[in-house]
Amino acid sequence: MVVISILILLFTFNLDKPVSFAKQGTITEDNVHVRSGPGTEFQIITQIHDGTAFTFIKRQAEWVEIQLEDSNVGWVHAKYLSINDQVDTPSTITIPHENTQIRSSPTTDAPIANFAKKGSSFQVISSKGDWYEIQNKAIHGFVYKALTEPISLPMKESSFANKSIVIDVGHGGRDVGAIGASGVFEKDVAFLTAQELTNELSMLGANVRLTRRNDEYIPLNSRISYSNNFDTDVFISLHYNSVPNLPNVTGIESFYYKESNKKLATSIQKKVFDAVQADDRGTSFGDFLVLRQNLKPAILLELGFISNKAEEARLLTTMYQKKLVSGIIQGLGSYFARSEIGKTEY
């Protein structure tokens, strides 16, 4: 009788316990590549088509590992699948990565509303597809779910790993560059951007070199030689505009000299625009010495007008600088990914 009672008790306990099922999903496009790892650099295993069913295994950034009905396992880009997610939404989350982007609405096209620090905690208000709506005392917005998962990527999976990037910090020393509405010097604003960009790129595994690390005058020819004498993957010259007699002019623009560098300029221009939602002045040919005599992929960025009082004020804030840098990095990442495979092919 004791044994029977125990069995009945165990059986009753298990009935009250929630049953976990593996998440299922379907492919939403035709001719989707299944790869051996989470990135376009990995081998294509097979192709699958719209409506193909799969079992979700795990997610890594924008890639999902799946198991097909024939038991094959591989990785697919998340944009080509739909997951029937029946997992309970957590009540709170802790941000695992530094400077995690918080957006104003649940889409990557939305402006970045804030950046969350690593270790900060949030209440989850709702779950909308791939996004959580979150808030704490200081921040309210939407975070991409994948960014809330601790991920440790091998360096070979980072498009920035071992890339050599030269950041040309515009002007310096006696060459102050443009002068802003409040008297701020272009050389100082460019240095703010360079410092933030250097920190972020270094954390992503890039080898970053600055044409100047202090407030010093560096001739243009020396900046060009610095780029040409190294195995430079990309040269980015950072600048800010000023038109004192047209104080209402605002916006960002990117320049290239060689036609082969137009895609690099366009990629970064688009992502910076997406990040800051400033006036988009486009991508143009620019006959600048640092581009014309540069033997490496090189562009020049004009990241705003310090002659405009409102824009100057934004440019001097840490938040806006982080947004600018976020856009530059996303544009670089897209450019590197396309360069490695000739074209984007998921």
TrEMBL record:
InterPro entries in the cross-refs: MurNAc-LAA_cat, N-acetylmuramoyl_amidase_3, SH3-like_bac-type
Domain SH3b, residue spans: 22-85, 88-152
Record's GO cellular component terms: outer membrane-bounded periplasmic space
Record-linked Pfam families: Amidase_3, SH3_3
The UniProt record lists the keyword Hydrolase: yes
The organism's place on the tree of life at top rank: Bacteria
GO BP terms in the entry: cell wall organization; peptidoglycan catabolic process
Protein name per Swiss-Prot or TrEMBL: SH3b domain-containing protein
Taxonomic lineage of the native organism: Bacteria, Bacillati, Bacillota, Bacilli, Bacillales
